[in-house]
Amino acid sequence: TTISTSTQSTGVEEDYGTLDLCFLPMLCACFLLGIPGNVSAIHFFKTTYRSARGNGAYFGNLYTVICISDLLLCALLLPIIQALLVGKSTEHVFFRNSTNHI
What we know:
Blueprint: H1 17-47, H2 56-75, H3 77-86
């Protein structure tokens, strides 16, 4: 037996813009809390962090590198936030029904 399936387009494109707008507050919170949090963590690890075993310099540098990479990731959210704010009425950034857009 052969089973044939046909996909028919209904002509109705679903609107996924609300999903894009759900990401906006989360991204803004990550950006607004991540930047000052990581800057203060870098300051803490470079100035006052001491380890009980005497290897505080190693772990202080390790945590500083981790905070710097997280700081850069938080900074990279800014263009995504801008795209969601500016293009929210014309184009969906993350979720869309059509695969023709690249």
